[in-house]
Amino acid sequence: MRSSSSGSDDRLPEEALRVGGHKTKKETVTEALEEYIGVGFTAVPAEF
Fold this sequence. Notes:
Blueprint: H1 11-20, H2 25-37
Helix pairs in contact: 1-2
């Protein structure tokens, strides 16, 4: 992982990769972002 000047903890992506059981960092980040914005959650159908 590249280091950044923002002061972010570069260990977080590695830990998320391990905990999430993903094969790539891209998969890990994609799932995290989807969960963050609510994508993938079961939505109530419009007719209800």
